[in-house]
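Field notebook, page 398. I keep forgetting to write these up properly, so this time I am using the form the group agreed on. The chain and the ligand, adenosine-5'-diphosphate, are recorded exactly as supplied. Prediction of the bound pose follows.
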Amino acid sequence: MKILVINAGSSSLKYQLYNMTDESVLAKGLVERIGMDSSILTHKPTNKSEMTEVSEILEHTTAIRKVLHALTDKEHGVIDSIDEIDAVGHRVVHGGESFKESAVVTEEAKKEIRRLFDLAPLHNPPSMMGIKAAEVNMPSIPQVVVFDTAFHQTMPEKAYMYAIPRVLYSKYKVRRYGAHGTSHDYVSKEAAKFLDRPLEDLKIITCHIGNGASITAVQGGVSVDTSMGMTPLEGLMMGTRSGDLDPAIVPFVMNKEELTVNEVNSMLNKHSGLLAISGVSSDMREITEGMEKGDANSKLAFDMYTYRVRKYIGSYAAAMNGVDAIVFTAGVGENSTVLREQVLKELTFLGVEIDEALNAIRSGEPRRISTEQSKVEVLVIPTNEELVIARDTFRLVQ
Ligand code: ADP
């Protein structure tokens, strides 16, 4: 069975084609600058040469048509015909309380995703464009939606409710939903496999640290708390997002600077975080470089960022009354030796002991970076959100 995984953003569309017989990736790629004058398709077939095409792609339907052309192209293609694709799996950010797991796309499911636009105005509309575009191009192929929030639907009320008037929950469903669920789910399962211990017995803290970043407490295989909130803005400091702050700052700044709702949203989501404090970049590699060159603002950004990761690990160890394993994943978590070192070196009170040599190793494989004596296992596990989407799609359409 072959499954096409689609991750649609407002101006981009990422894809991967899986052969589920051995879960191998046949091709992957990306369409960028959708709706702008020169859109770029980058197609990377496994074992064949890469292809780049610049053209005008005004919306997602054309983007998917181009992707299907690339997948069936004589020279760069990996299948003979579109009919070889058995199902399409879509990443959707927000499933609200309606989707506790992945679902086959039906008219009812689409209606529900549309209802959730209110909760995720930046993220769900592009997902819907991706779904519609796939339906137009592949009308007879089943579609599945996989939600970033679904894994966190197991959180208890005490973790997901905000201490604000209850009417805001009953009227608008204002609560914590979390995100990066497919990643936290995947790496916690991989951690249990790596440790060769039953997932049901483990208390794991998973740190997904990429451009966006979130931490989850996974107890017995289910999410019991997570740092992102109703939207991905809460929790850790991120590349361009502020993470946690005193909510009173919002009306204060709006008042002083005469900002609109959109402007303050943009300030907190796009102009805060590492970028705002360093004044250099939202990219951890550049922050680290700046710090090494003695730039004080980069150092402050790095210290604030790592301090907050450490505080969350401490609080989730308290939430679960213990922790067996800490897992680092995603762009920064998998690659930044200095970030992991800075976070972990002051978790000795938990019995964490880091092996510097193991921490310095670079590999794309799951690995342990704690010493044999460490009371907590510390692992680096590359995430694979696309594979989770492909697996769920496979399971649901079979
Ligand atoms: P997202 O999926 O949220 O866009 P990723 O998980 O791909 O993000 O992570 C992207 C981020 O990973 C980049 O912004 C960069 O800061 C960081 N990153 C990648 N490689 C390294 C590295 N070697 N050292 C530190 N940070 C890195």
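OBSERVATIONS:
- The pocket of adenosine-5'-diphosphate is lined by residues 210-212, 239, 283-285, 330-332, 335-336 (CB under 6 Å).
- Residues 2-147 form a domain with the Nucleotidyltransferase; domain 5 fold (CATH 3.30.420.40).
FOLLOW-UP: compare against the apo run.
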